[in-house]
Amino acid sequence: MSDYLKIFLVGMPGSGKSTLGRPLAETLLLPFVDQDKEIERRAGKTVQAIFAEDGEAYFRLLESEVLKHWAATDMNFVMATGGGAPCFHDGMTVINVAGISVFLDVPVEELLSRTATDKGRPLLQAEDLAEKKTKLTALYDRRQTCYAQAQIALKEPTLPALQHAIDARLRK
Ligand SMILES: Nc1ncnc2c1ncn2[C@@H]1O[C@H](COP(=O)(O)OP(=O)(O)OP(=O)(O)O)[C@@H](O)[C@H]1O
Ligand SMILES: O=C(O)C1=C[C@@H](O)[C@@H](O)[C@H](O)C1
Ligand SMILES: [Mg+2]
Q1: Whether the Cβ atoms of residue 165 and residue 105 lie closer than 8 Å to each other
Q2: Do 65 and 38 touch, CB atoms closer than 8 A?
Q3: Please, which of 25, 41, 62, 136 could form a disulfide with 32 given CB 3.0 to 4.6 Å?
Q4: What is the 115 CA–ligand 1 centroid distance (Å)?
Q5: How far, CA to CA in Å, does 12 sit from each of 16, 97, 158, 171?
Q6: pTM here?
């Protein structure tokens, strides 16, 4: 691990990485970094536009560059990673070498209800809820071996549980 405190929240779209990451960073007095926002800043367009205009493979390259940049930077931070960031271009190794990884493990039914009306997630575009559930379930199953490499896993995570897990880890 580096000399800096870098906390990487990983998990499925809708697992709460952005929602829980910001207050976690506030309580630890650390900057909060949203990886998707960093990708958008670098590309000068939205994640949706990158997927549509340049394709997923190009997005994964950008995503990996942004991850490596932050992994190497001389800064402490909490990062909400992109949902797929740990699962492409050996992202989980980059994360685990640089800092502390926390998998926010939320069941598919809950992910579905949280993302039901959301149109912004390119991998979850669907005609109806049933199709979205099929896509979410396939993505969830495919990603389990990747997310399982996180140093900490929290089932149905809450902010207090996340704070407690980080606290315990820092006391080790
Ligand atoms: N613990 C929670 N309980 C209830 N709703 C939640 C919780 N965490 C997040 N949400 C809601 O779920 C939705 C998705 O959360 P969020 O954007 O934080 O997920 P994410 O992991 O950052 O997803 P993405 O990978 O797409 O960026 C938001 O509408 C948020 O309000
Ligand atoms: O799970 C994924 O692969 C993604 C999740 C989002 O955070 C974005 O990074 C993008 O929509 C891809
Ligand atoms: Mg997010």
Answers
A1: no
A2: no
A3: 25
A4: 8
A5: 8, 21, 15, 28
A6: 0.96
β-strand partners of 79: 8, 33
The CA distance from 64 to 123, in Å, is: 18
Per-residue pLDDT 10s for the chain (172 aa) are 578 999 999 999 999 999 999 999 999 999 999 999 999 999 999 999 999 999 999 999 999 999 999 999 999 999 999 999 999 999 999 999 999 999 999 999 999 999 888 877 888 888 889 999 999 999 999 999 999 999 999 998 999 999 999 999 999 8
**Which residue out of 64, 106, 123, 125 has the highest number of ligand 2 atoms within 8 Å of its CB and is therefore the one to mutate?**
123
Atom of ligand 1 nearest to the CA of 118: 29
ipTM greater than 0.85:
yes
Output the six-digit token pair for 87: 């699962």
11 is in an annotated binding site: no
